[in-house]
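CHAIN AND CONFORMATION:
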Amino acid sequence: MAQRSEAVGSIALKDARQVTIRALLETDRPALAAFGQSLPKNDILYLEDDFTHPEIISRLANAAHAENWRQIIATTDEGEFVGYTAAMRMPGWSNHVANIRLIVQPNYRRSGLGMHLAQAIVEASRELGATKVTVEMLAALTAGQAIFSRLGFAVEGQLARHAIDRDGNLHDIVIMSAFVRI
């Protein structure tokens, strides 16, 4: 198993707020559940995992030490989660690829937190042994695309009406990727 970075550490955001970026722990279940409940309905509609569902929160917290999965959170000094990101190494013939997920609480967007989390999860993907990292997002999420573009990701494709939100609406998704060195 690859050695894990247990914490990125404390960082100052563009607006001078401080957060700590670190690995998700099994004991973080209540804070992760509170984070999920704090997300706006529109955000929850587009997430692959329903962060408001207790079973999903349990699965995420229980996976804190999973071999092919890394989860990183951003937390305030008060213990409030304000960002979550994960990388999952794919199975089989794509086991050199890690897929990233990232969500930032709305009042922390445009503060640089998304970039810090993206950088941390790309590094965690390297630790997983990935040589290629992908991220899928709604085509309308141009701010997210800009973050990953700055990290060297390029659009590999766009899939029309590929995602369906929890209200039944179809959306285009963009797939971006970057090759990373171990």
